Amino acid sequence: MITMEADNFYFFPTRIGEPQRIYLRLERETGRATLEQELRKAGIEPLPHDVDFSTRNFPDYAVIAVTVGPGIWLALRTAIRGLAERHRHKGFILELPGGGSMSADGHSAKEVARLLSAAEGLFEHVSQTPDQHFVAVDRVARQLLAHRADLVVPEPWATIVSIDSSLDGVAALLDDCRTMQQRHALVGFLTGVVNGNRNLEDMTGQPAATTAESQQALAAVAEVIRDLPRGIFENES
Predict the structure, then answer these.
(1) Contact status, residue 80 vs residue 116, Cβ threshold 8 Å
(2) How much is the pLDDT for 122?
(3) Residue 159: is its pLDDT beyond 70?
(4) Burial grade of 226 (CB within 10 A; 0-12, 13-18, 19 or more)
(5) What digits encode the pLDDT tens for the residues 109-151?
(6) Which of 82, 54, 78, 49 is nearest to 66 (CA)?
(7) Measuring CA to CA, how many Å separate 207 from each of 14, 21, 149, 150, 188?
């Protein structure tokens, strides 16, 4: 999401499974025509108003949709720079998944370019298919199982921290994980390993991973799970 301060100008990508569009949301009072003019000057033709994304849910906002295609990010950069010229005292903010943000001063073309580059990367990540995301899940799960012997929960903590049972679930699913339900379950077991390790560290000050390689495998699992779009494997496709 990109926000233009004070005018509530937003960017957010299409949800998984929907046509690949980018939606720009702004307060009606700031003037839909102004943004549409900048988009057309940059070579982007806004889609008809009847394809606006959930406008009924945003009664105080206008929503402009554009189709993803070649050159879209360069054209968006040009349009946003043009809009920034009309609002020189404002800036743009990109809210990142999992917290944090990046900002760009409306004065600076370089800063706007940096922000749009980050937005492009975020859009491409969210737009990946479930199969593409599962490739990463499968890779880190296999890496984790390869170092299973190095994941040790000492007594008496083994009765409290259930890393072994979660690893059993990963091992049982990994070689026959074709349906979305199975993939969702696999992510659940991997999450159990990560959470179990975190709980063990909180209680003992020591991780379950006893080697550098197993620590790296655990960290890779945590990173992939954290970056998965919400609900990616919850429905059959």
Answers:
(1) yes
(2) 66
(3) yes
(4) exposed
(5) 677 677 777 777 766 665 567 777 888 899 999 999 999 999 9
(6) 49
(7) 39, 43, 14, 11, 20
